[in-house]
Amino acid sequence: MAKSIQSLERAAAMLRLLAGGERRLGLSDIASTLDLAKGTAHGILRTLQAEGFVEQDPASGRYQLGAELLRLGNSYLDVHELRARALVWADDLARSSGESVHLGVLHQHGVLIVHHVFRPDDSRQVLEVGAMQPLHSTALGKVLAAFDPVAHSEAVEAVRESFTPRTVTDLAEFESVLDHTRARGWAADVEETWEGVAAVAAPIHDRRRMPVGAVAITGAVERVCSDQEVRSELVAAVRQCARAVSRDLGAGRF
Amino acid sequence: MTDAPHTGAASHGHGPFIAAIDQGTTSSRCIVFDKDGRIVSVDQKEHEQILPKPGWVEHNANEIWTNVQEVVASAIEKAGITSADVKAIGITNQRETTLLWDKNTGEPVHNAIVWQDTRTDALCRELGRNVGQDRFRRETGLPLASYFAGPKARWLLDNVEGLRERAERGEILFGTMDSWVIWNLTGGVDGGVHVTDVTNASRTMLMNLHTMAWDKKILASMHVPAAILPEIRSSAEVYGIAKGGVLDGIPVASALGDQQAALFGQTCFAKGEAKSTYGTGTFMLINTGHTPVNSYNGLLTTVGYRIGEERAVYALEGSIAVTGSLVQWMRDQMGLISSAPEIETLALTVEDNGGAYVVPAFSGLFAPYWRPDARGVIAGLTRYVTKAHIARAVLEATAWQTREISDAMTKDSGVELTTLKVDGGMTSNNLLMQTLSDFLDAPVVRPMVAETTCLGAAYAAGLAVGFWPDTDALRANWRRAAEWTPRMDADKREREYKSWLKAVQRTMGWLEEED
């Protein structure tokens, strides 16, 4: 194993020292506690400060943990915030497509449904929020596996169960599906999870371009597809919705 | 109400269209709808909240009219249509906000006094004389409270130099924001029509609910000259034709107060149908059919709507002061969460409230208690209780308060709530919606168009000009986006309700004396 980098070790020690409650320490306290020359300690603190990991109180000159460090720990997007942001757009997608809309995020080894808009036809439907779907066969799951590296490794390592004769279970074939999904920016599931059901999904990104979820429309294969291909206007509508939600997420939190 | 997209919606049908203007408390909006009731385009502009003293809230009516013209022009442009494609304009508005203006110059004589403004508190007590706040309830359905427009008009007449004399000479016009917008749209000083609709008139405390006319006795008691009052019309008829501007030549064909517009937009056309709008506060209205139902449980009796020459439809209204604002308080004052939707994430980490109850009586208890001496409590604390339990109790507070309003409505009207239609920003909270259904023991449904207020105004205007044939056609447009059904067992519900009611008791009498 390569020798560890001393200045990083020292920086880590400083962050630990400042962590735990709202602690503020002066330069000499930090230097003496860590047994460092003041000049060395100051150099490291200034670097951490430039990165936003440490802040210096202008009045006392003491150091404390910086806001960037907090952001690092909280960078995940709350799924309920995702739902709140997506609500209007998902409604509009359901109305324009005439099909049901689902919003999914990666959760453990599958897709967690965090939002569901009924198909607008007045039929009895059950809210599917909280349900889990497989990663490898659904349109939502394929989009997540294609764009989110964590989802990708989950899908690759999992046992890819065959639900219908059309389910892709072979790894190489699955990877090529994901390549195709990345290239065109959307994924389809034509009777690969449920007989008679087709879906199309597109990724939702946050302001850092991180994939945070996916949106899909799902319906009877006869309506969603023509000649076994997903109808292009439905693909356009799903992608437009995903872009609109992504744009709203980029607008900052409220 | 909700986070609306500020750009035009993605796709829309073909014309013709209806334009709805929502003159709200913080902003004015215009939404263009197609025949399916889908949003074609939206534009919105905020106006200044003028706060001259604690408790006083005013709006500059000229600024509002300018904004209305701008958002209308912009919404039409974003829709990529021309005024020839717009068949009618509908109006919905912040209720009770009061304006007096000069008939000959079109200039407001004072800023509009906003519904939230409490400057008429003392006047309302004085008007109650020896009878108290229910002095005009039989005629108007309302208690004497500072919200309503009549006392605000009286305040202006008493406090603006020379205004009463000008009013008695017939130089001054009174109106809520619907009247102001319609008068200006239809030409202003150049032949503008001076009208209001039955729903807005029912919030003035000057209209008799049974005759739908200005009540001469109340006018005399309140010292408001009849000469300044607009003509009371139905909620859906052509009041006049827009003159000038982008909308030139289009019929102005509806007016509804915002909560009544939401009732209309949710297509609550049958007796017993109710809607609840969840924002910072919550407004619940239930359709009680053709008779005004007196409330003995602290609700308001109000006009739901009236379509043209048809009989008026009445409603009972209950409002909850603190719902979404409790979540905001948990975020901003308590720092329990960093964004409002996170309340659900936190609440879902536990199975129940752990025995804790939050009663947000921040400025007293409203319907059905009306106890100004109450203040908020968190009850049932033990060492076991975590912040997640509190988060759950926060959401449950909104659901229990809705249950209390719903129970009061049942008591007053004898009508059981069958289904609750919901809208507003908090409907994105899945746990809250499920809890609501559990506590009400009734299905809760969310429609696909979140903008029910504007939609209601558009619907009423569309009916008036024959764009839609009847209310059945509007019902057919209503689409269920989600439905939550009760899952809680009855024993548990009753046990929990008892605990909630106990917690409510704990809030009362906190203030020793109300002055």
Automatic annotation (TrEMBL), chain A:
| Presence of keyword Lyase | no
Q: Which UniProt keywords apply?
A: DNA-binding, Transcription, Transcription regulation
Looking up InterPro entries in the UniProt record yields: GAF-like_dom_sf (IPR029016), HTH_MetabolicPath_Reg (IPR050707), Tscrpt_reg_IclR_C (IPR014757), Tscrpt_reg_IclR_N (IPR005471), WH-like_DNA-bd_sf (IPR036388), WH_DNA-bd_sf (IPR036390)
Q: Which SUPFAM superfamilies match?
A: GAF domain-like, Winged helix' DNA-binding domain
Instruction: Specify the HTH iclR-type domain's residue ranges.
Output: 5-67
Its recorded name reads: IclR family transcriptional regulator
Where in this chain does the record put each IclR-ED domain? 68-251
Record keyword Transcription regulation present: yes
From TrEMBL, chain B:
Q: In which pathway does it act?
A: Polyol metabolism; glycerol degradation via glycerol kinase pathway; sn-glycerol 3-phosphate from glycerol: step 1/1
Say yes or no: keyword Manganese present. Answer: no
| Residue ranges constituting the Carbohydrate kinase FGGY C-terminal domain according to the UniProt record | 275-464
Q: Which GO terms describe its molecular function?
A: glycerol kinase activity
| Catalytic activity, EC | 2.7.1.30
Q: How is its activity regulated?
A: Inhibited by fructose 1,6-bisphosphate (FBP).
The function of this protein is:
Key enzyme in the regulation of glycerol uptake and metabolism. Catalyzes the phosphorylation of glycerol to yield sn-glycerol 3-phosphate.
Recorded protein name is Glycerol kinase
